[in-house]
Amino acid sequence: MGSLFRSEPMCLAQLFLQSGTAYECLSALGEKGLVQFRDLNQNVSSFQRKFVGEVKRCEELERILAYLVQEIHRADIPLPEGETSPPAPPLKQVLEMQEQLQKLEVELREVTRNKEKLRKNLLELIEYTHMLRVTKTFVRRNVEFEPTYEEFPALDSDSLLDYSSMQRLGAKLGFVSGLIHQGKVEAFERMLWRVCKGYTIVTYAELDESLEDPETGEVIKWHVFLISFWGEQIGHKVKKICDCYHCHIYPYPSTAEERREIQEGLSTRIQDLYTVLHKTEDYLRQVLCKAAESVYSRAVQVKKMKAIYHMLNMCSLDVTNKCLIAEVWCPEADLQGLRRALEDGSRESGATITSFMNTIPTTETPPTLIRTNKFTEGFQNIVDAYGVGSYREVNPALFSIITFPFLFAVMFGDFGHGFVMFLFALLMVLNENHPRLSQSQEIMGMFFNGRYILLLMGLFSVYTGLIYNDCFSKSVNLFGSGWNVSAMYSASHAPAERGKMALWNDSVVRRSRVLQLDPSVPGVFQGPYPLGIDPIWNLATNRLTFLNSFKMKMSVILGIIHMTFGVVLGIFNHLHFRKKFNIYLVSVPELLFLLCMFGYLIFMIIYKWLVYSAETSRVAPSILIEFINMFLFPTTATSGLYAGQEHVQRLLLAVTAMAVPVLFLGKPLFLLWLHNGRSCFGVSRSGYTLVRKDSEEEVSLMGSQDIEEGSTPLEDGCREVTCEEFNFGEILMTQVIHSIEYCLGCISNTASYLRLWALSLAHAQLSDVLWAMLMRVGLRVDKTYGVLLLLPVMALFAVLTIFILLVMEGLSAFLHAIRLHWVEFQNKFYVGAGTKFVPFSFRRLSWKFSDDRA
């Protein structure tokens, strides 16, 4: 709990790693995840560091493993993903593993290449078979007529030669046959006509079945074509056009005997290719299955090895080049674990000289480490989204565990909706170890990561729903109403009392559309409802007026308490950082300014609730008018809430007026007084910079610490601060801006908390409208059709409730709750200017194979 309240104390440690044991020591550190390395080679490029060759070797191994994973996925072979990760490989096994992987890659690429060639040849032979079958009926040529070739005359001189003239000239008739994509047929035919000027005859036929393209592997529809042409020049043009349209051209047999021989040969070759291809695929699958058994462990080992060399590149060498020096941030509680990890790494490497570490003083601000578990992680992420906390300042996440779901529930208060959200989150919590939930992505992954936040939000919404007495916009009468309607009838009272009170009778009940219950009548109001709002208000016409007044005052009370708590937490920061003057000159004036105005407003609200009853409610003064008169000083006397109210209010205004100049000028003048008290002074630090480094505020602060703690005279080598470094104008301007922001923020932030009332009202009204438009209509239908209509109406009501009231309204209330914490609460004490502690840990690496796919 201490770690969650404030970040853990850190120290800067220096590691001395022997060159032969550095790899094993970092492997042990990576398994434990204790330290964050500092880069000691920031001025050296990544390509000039010592272990860049080893990093390139790891990247080459990652490329080979990515290729193996790609081939294994392509073969639909399941990849075993172990729950435990193997350690980083010893240096002796790295070369052996690299040689095995390279040999496996060469073998796989060769087998895959042969398989692709066999497959391509098989697809081409299948296409050739289909082409011969379809073109068999295209052209019937006379086998005996084979004219000899003569030079074909130029086309420009005789462009209208018919077939008889071609026979007379003895031009040779040629054929081009093949397959073309279905979408290219029309353009292909048009191009042939334009280029060949009609000296071609094109015949098409669509294949009955789709075939796989040997080049792309895509299954598409094909057309078989046969082109008849005259002349060699026309034949060259036709072949060029076929190449441009990526046609698959196959030889066309000149005789029926040749066709039959080709078909028989194709049938034999296809059968042989099927046999060889199946054997090749079986062998390839055996190789891949064997590789799949170890690919997970090897991928994990390579990633760990690469991470180790990345960290080694951040280390510096000593003058002898035999020892690596590293600087790390380490929590003070983990120093013993760090020493044990170095000893384990040295022992594993078999070195005679063990690596060691020692802590070094520093003036740099350490990173922030707040240990979380699966329950507190979601709330810490909400705070970190605003800004990582400064080192050792109060962490708002501890208090957000309660305040965040509570403020959400104030805006989302409905028993039914909260219970549905609670059940949804409870299911995810109970099944959090299910792999499908833990590996879910996008929206479902966000819900799963925030399952404990949803659980508390739903639980608190159930509570506020009971307070509001709202369950799907309807009230629940659990304990019986505290209002008695029968007591309003005149017959239930003595004749002497009837003339003094406005009672009901039969004629009044018949004539009046609206009846009013008078709590001052004896027996009408029997006492408050035990839990929450009385269910009779759900029937009242002034229900909205009553709830608005209640929720608005409740929002103001909760908001002022929330902001006051934030100012009080700032006092804990000042105490921890030993800035006691900030308590008296900043925090106390802030509290007085806030409580003397808005704290007094809470007092008036609660006082009116407790003092005035139903009998005296008509003479009760307005809180709003009284609060305004507090600042206006009216000349006419008012009744007031209590005796002596005017004197109390003037005293509070006087305290508020005195707090403002103290807030504006107190801290700058105090720092100026400290500065003038010692013209030149030094600053000695044994810890860390807790405020803005080298700031004038810190200079004066350190001087005050020396006075308070009775520090010894400054030693030689301490940093000397001259008088010119103190800038009173800058300090004064910073404090004035902060004070103006705080004073105006008290007013605007208090008004901002009214969103609790507005969102609660909007949610209740939307729920009421949804019930009136759907469920009320379904329930009012007669018995004949009511049952049939009620089922779809209930289904539609459930769908709209989930998507509109739970998802959309829930997201709106969630965002407003975040805003109230970030702006109104955290700016009172939380700086959020730190850096997150990122340890060197193998658990941060991803072991998912999806990340390795090429």
In brief, what are we looking at here?
It contains 25 helices and 13 strands. It has 854 residues and is of the alpha+beta class.
Description:
The chain is an alpha+beta fold and 854 residues long. Among the domains are: 10-40 and 315-367, VC0802-like (2-Layer Sandwich), CATH 3.30.2130.10; 115-142 and 171-280, Alpha-Beta Plaits, CATH 3.30.70. It is 57% helix and 8% strand. The protein contains 25 helices and 13 strands. The protein has helices at 2-5, 22-32, 52-74, 91-135, 163-169, 185-196, 232-244, 256-312, 335-349, 377-386, 397-411, 415-430, 435-438, 442-449, 451-468, 495-498, 506-511, 543-576, 580-611, 623-632, 645-677, 696-709, 728-752, 755-779, 783-825, and strands at 10-18, 36-37, 173-181, 200-206, 211-212, 219-220, 222-230, 248-250, 316-317, 323-331, 356-360, 681-683, 719-721. The strands form 4 sheets. Strands 1, 2, 9, 10 and 11 form a 5-stranded antiparallel sheet that branches. It has a 4-stranded antiparallel sheet with strand order 4-7-3-8, with helices on both faces. Strand 5 (211-212) and strand 6 form a beta hairpin. The longest helix is centred in the first third of the chain and has 57 residues, at 256-312. It is flat and about 130 Å long. 27% of the residues are buried. This is V-type proton ATPase subunit a. InterPro entries: V-ATPase_116kDa_su, V-type_ATPase_116kDa_su_euka.
